[in-house]
Amino acid sequence: DHRDLHSFPTRRSSDLLAKVRECKGGSSDRPVVLMGWGPGAAIAAHVAGLEKVCGVVCLGFPSTSLSGYRGDLGDTILDLKSPTLFVVGEKSKVANTDDIEALREKLSVETGLVIVGAADNNLRISKRKQRLECVTQSMVDRSIMEEIREFLVGILGSVVRHHSGPATFAIPAMTTFCPLAWPGVCLLAGAWLRRK
Fold this sequence. Notes:
disordered N terminus; 20% strand; 5 helices; two-stranded antiparallel sheet; 39% helix; 196 residues; globular; alpha/beta; seven-stranded mixed β-sheet
């Protein structure tokens, strides 16, 4: 049904917003970070425009929506209230790096951009490119995780010191939310990632 297609993001946003408020438990100083992939990243960013969180990590963030380019006049992402890290593949068909840069310039919050060289929408590098660069997908994934860890350490460093409990990570999925504990694992970084 056509109506279901348009209402799905709204339902997911409402679910995530309720989960964020539940995680905060009435305490506005409890550190909450949202993370999403593809459409889940767009939902996480939308919710972060409605409710202040410590940060947002957007993996494979789509640079367009049903309404046009992200960041155009009237786009709710312009209401973003939290530091945000965008991680996109250089060869992604849904996340044009120039469009993401243009969006970042319009945002009034701290943002970061990690471009995974030769990677697709799913941040995957072809087997051929892996052989040429003498890397594995696991090495690329670990490097992405290190970039995310550095971003989170930067935004959560002072917050975690002033908060007695662990930070909460709510990751929007198709049907459920997964809480994870802070801190993350320290992993290796690679040269095929470009931070902007």
